[in-house]
Design brief:
This protein is of the alpha+beta class. The chain has helices at 51-61, 63-74, 169-184, 187-202, 240-247, 250-258, 264-287, 295-302, 315-324; strands at 77-80, 84-88, 95-100, 105-106, 114-117, 130-138, 142-150, 155-156, 215-218, 223-226. Strands 1, 2, 3, 4, 5, 6 and 7 form a seven-stranded antiparallel β-sheet that branches. A three-stranded antiparallel β-sheet has the order 8-9-10.
Amino acid sequence: MIINKINAIGFPKIQFNNCNKRFNNTLTSDVFVRTTSFKSNKQEPKDEKSFEAFQSWAKKSEFLNNIEEIVEHTGRVIGAGFEGEVIEIPNNDNWVIKQFKRTNLVPLALEKPTINKIDDIAPELNIGQSIAYVRVPVGKNYSKMYYILKKQTGKSLGINKASGNEVCKCNNDTHIDSLRKLSNAPQSAYDKFIKDIDYITAQGYMLDYINPNNLMYDDEKQEIHFVDVEDKLSENKNQYGEMLFCLLDSEFSDRYLMSAEEGSEKEEVKQLTEDIVNKFFEAMFKNGSKFDDSNIFKLLLESEVLDRNIAGKTCEEKIESLKAMGLY
């Protein structure tokens, strides 16, 4: 990360609506309370991407007989990173296959392929989580292992870390396109994003802020989605600073803003960033959320990425501005 401190541009432009409401939940003594209860016929919606749904589909489609063919030939690679690949299952919109490079082959003798359940780490939210693993015998003493993940919707944001962080036309275009999508997203997308961060954190899992590709934007649903959430949180803290860092593609953005690139696009990046941060701050304010004092958030404050949204020259002065805004 290239760190640079510049003078803040004026005072914070963001304005928030007063979200405080008062409710009266008191029953008067004259209220008639029905004591007879009736069992509702309404059923909770089923998770079409659950383990049980996958197990049923796999049996009907003879998936176990075809998984090797899918991985090797017919499945399209839709994601790749340092640890492995994500492979699309043809004619299936509910699940994908993940193949890890280091744990693909295990010393386990099996007579036939097996499907094994993995407990859903976030049953109320699709974060591209694993719901099963499949073992396929290879020879007498080994088996191949594949993971089945819930398929996520949307297109990846930001620049994949595997592609490098070089300031060049290709990366610049990708970065700006990502910011444009997020700038055009409605406030509701950010409101849900903040609540989803809370939910995943409450489940005890860490969001990957290093690779912006682990965030996706669904144009149809107008929502920001997560993938690759598997690691446990090592400490009890919120993850707003980390997710804002990731959302803005901050490591690349700081490099880009500090580069010798000229023209109207750099000014557009600053404006798009300001718009995105305003919506993020608004969502936090409405949710009663505050930033934690994390190393990643400090890097964000020390860069010039937030200078249009937060007054102050130093990190300490910017924190005081955030406190005045009710966000720290």
